[in-house]
Design a protein that fits this description.
CATH class of the largest domain in chain B: Alpha Beta
Number of strands of chain A: 15
CATH topology of the largest domain in chain B: Rossmann fold
Helix content of chain A: 25-40%
Structural class of chain A: alpha/beta
Radius of gyration of chain B: 22 Å
Shape of chain A: globular
Helix content of chain B: 25-40%
Shape of chain B: elongated
Number of domains of chain A: 1
Strand content of chain B: 25-35%
Distance between the termini of chain B: 68 Å
Structural class of chain B: alpha/beta
Largest sheet of chain A: 9 strands, mixed
CATH superfamily of chain A: HUPs
CATH architecture of chain A: 3-Layer(aba) Sandwich
CATH class of chain A: Alpha Beta
Distance between the termini of chain A: 63 Å
CATH superfamily of the largest domain in chain B: HUPs
CATH architecture of the largest domain in chain B: 3-Layer(aba) Sandwich
Strand order of the largest sheet of chain A: 11-10-9-12-8-1-6-7-13
Order of helices and strands of chain B: EEEHEHEHEHEEEEEEEEHEHEHEEH
Number of helices of chain A: 6
Number of strands of chain B: 18
Order of helices and strands of chain A: EEEEEHEHEHEHEEEEHEEEH
Oligomer: heterodimer
Largest interface: A-B, 79 and 90 residues
Strand order of the largest sheet of chain B: 7-11-6-1-4-5-12
Largest sheet of chain B: 7 strands, parallel
Chain lengths: 261, 338
């Protein structure tokens, strides 16, 4: 069986720092990583390949440095990687991203499953997976904890909020895997070295038979109007002063004033 | 994607209502409250869209919570959430009735449904919003959401496509008051559904084994962060929460340290709460956490660092060691109780 995994290279948003003078975010120097959830998707695909045979292909859209992320997936044991890089793709919202990935999937042709991570740590929309499934008109199985393939059907355990469901769908289908499922393997050294010798084709708009109007910023229905640093200043804080016993008494006094206790 | 629609044909605000065995999800009711406000600014009708089995009483309830009309899709096959059928039914009605705004709760179901629906409708969808408004001058729906891992806020519009869609995090909007004298219209859809036509089969659906605490329902929350130090201090904080008849909340750090389960995490990757009282113990006030609690009515912060960000949003601040202050509060509370 053939599995396509969609990954995103993201800034490591847990590593951001702030300019103490201007209070604005310093974007420079933030390391780029494979979106952590997407590694779970790769792990799921590799395990399914180990059981059922076939090929795992990873695709990613992004600037030229996406190559590093793709090479890392080859090190994990992925068979092939395809990069979607072009100025025309820049500024894509989730709609345009799903459309572009969809064109790439159609070009790849034969596949049984598409696996995505639940969401990316930077945007955290969890939208591209379901939108890609809609574009390809295939079933979507989200929040998946476990995958089983049998008789050309896929059976998954889905954690839908406080419901645990068992779903079955015909293939091809698209799956998004939960953070807790399929802990990613560490790439073995020989496989990392081997990955450096592999070729990663770069596809551009002219390689995809799509509508150019639907790509990138101009193809995105949503537009960014403004970005700002949230100002959380609520008003003037009243400091309660004194030793622990003093502040404890004042604390309780305030709760009483507000009829909380 | 190029839009070829006449946006002036689109009028009205719709709210997708999620239900479990007939009980509407709290987030759906919160959205009816916000939707009411948006509809009034636009001078249009607020419509609730309800799908389920035997939900006629639920439909009436939605009118009491602010809907002018309720579109009801009532069928045994709609009892459980199904991506395909829900998308088919809603998108068909959207294409026929043309609402300008469609909002959906960013619950697990909403986050499965809304993106699929938006792609089919050639509509933009802004995920996990924390603010919704109308730009009255341009008749545009304006959504605000955290971006870049919650480090910045982004304002997003969708000028050329309709409906303008957003999902909204649970707990962000206030629950509207119920008025059981409100009247409205109920529109029952005629449906012909066939289970064999559903590609995805639900073989099993059971309530999960989660411990079932919903801190979003708690009126008092004592939250614990990195500055609380260790497990021992954490146990004191738990005692304080119990004495205040409240629940323990946490930052991501405290969850990752294993002190509390993920369902108590507040903030960007956790829940949004707006309790009557929030006490932050050893919480620095990083935006990833405060994004989920800044709407609390009274905020009291205890932190060693007098420059901690949390004091900017607190009503009352205590500069001190949680390990000393919390036990003092506990013994004072106990004293006053006896």
């Amino acid at each position: 069986m053939n599995i396509i995994v969609c990954i995103k290279q993201v800034p490591d948003v847990t590593e951001v720092s702030w300019d103490p003078e201007t209070g604005s975010l310093i974007r420079k120097g933030i390391p780029s990583i494979i979106n952590p959830n997407d590694k779970n998707a790769i792990e799921a695909a590799l395990q399914l390949r180990e059981m059922n045979g076939g090929e795992v292909i990873v695709i990613s859209m992004g600037p030229s440095q996406v190559e590093e992320a793709l090479r890392e997936t080859l090190g994990m044991g992925v068979d092939r990687a395809i990069q979607l890089t072009s100025r025309e793709f820049a500024g894509s919202d989730t709609w345009a991203t799903a459309y572009t990935l969809g064109l790439a999937v159609k070009k790849i042709g034969q596949y049984d499953l598409i696996i995505c991570g639940k969401e990316a740590i930077d945007g955290m929309t969890a939208q591209v997976g379901p939108q890609l499934a809609e574009y390809l008109a295939i079933p979507q199985l989200t929040y998946v904890m476990h995958i089983e393939v049998k008789d050309n059907k896929v059976r998954v355990k889905q954690r839908l909020g406080d419901l645990d469901r068992l779903l079955e769908a015909p293939m091809p289908a698209l799956i998004t895997v939960e953070r807790e499922a399929y802990q990613p393997r560490v790439a073995p050294m020989d496989s990392i070295l081997e990955a450096y010798g592999k070729e990663i084709p770069v596809w551009k708009p002219e390689d995809l038979s799509g509508n150019m109007e639907n790509l990138g910023l101009k193809g995105s229905p949503t537009k960014l109007r403004k970005v700002y640093t949230p100002k959380l200043i609520k008003g003037k804080v009243e400091m309660l002063e004194g030793g622990p016993e003093d502040v404890a008494r004042q604390f309780i006094g305030k709760l009483k004033e507000k009829y909380i206790i | 994607m190029a839009s070829k629609i006449d946006i002036s044909e689109y009028r009205g605000v719709w709210v997708f209502v999620e239900q479990t065995e007939g009980a509407p999800a709290r987030v759906s009711l919160e959205l009816l409250g916000k939707g009411r406000e948006l509809a009034e600014k636009l001078g249009v009708v607020l419509t609730a869209f309800l799908l389920g089995e035997s939900v006629e009483d639920t439909a009436k309830e939605l009118i009491f919570f602010g809907a002018d009309e309720v579109i009801v899709a009532d069928h045994p096959l709609l009892k459980d959430y199904r991506t395909e059928l829900y998308t088919d039914i809603i998108s068909e009605q959207v294409m026929a009735r043309k609402p300008e705004v469609l909002i959906v709760g960013a619950s697990p179901i909403g986050r499965d449904l809304a993106p699929r629906l938006s792609f089919r409708l050639n509509a933009g969808c802004t995920a996990d919003c924390t603010g919704l408004d109308i730009d009255e001058e341009n008749r545009l729906f304006v959504s605000t959401r955290p971006a870049f891992g919650g480090n910045v806020m982004a304002t997003i519009i969708c000028p050329e496509h309709r409906p303008q869609m957003s999902t909204v995090r649970p707990g962000v909007m206030a629950l509207p008051e119920k008025d059981d004298k409100r009247e409205g219209q109920i529109i029952d859809l005629e449906l012909q559904l066939d289970e064999d036509a559903c590609k995805v089969k639900i073989l099993e659906s059971v309530k999960g084994a989660s411990e079932g605490v919903n801190i979003q329902d708690a009126e008092r929350i004592v939250a614990v962060g990195m500055g609380a130090g260790d497990k021992e201090t954490f146990d004191m904080i738990k005692e304080l929460a119990e004495l205040l008849d409240g629940e323990v909340g946490a930052t991501r750090f405290a969850v990752e340290a294993g002190w509390v389960s993920h369902d108590r995490q507040i903030g960007q990757t956790g829940k949004t709460v707006r309790p009557e009282l929030y006490v932050g113990c050893g919480i620095s006030g990083a935006v990833q956490h405060t994004a989920g609690m800044s709407a609390s009515k009274t905020i009291i912060a205890i932190n060693k660092d007098p420059n901690a960000e949390v004091f900017k949003i607190a009503d009352y601040g205590i500069v001190g060691d949680v390990r000393k202050v919390v036990p003092a509060i506990i013994s004072e509370l106990k004293n006053q109780m006896t």
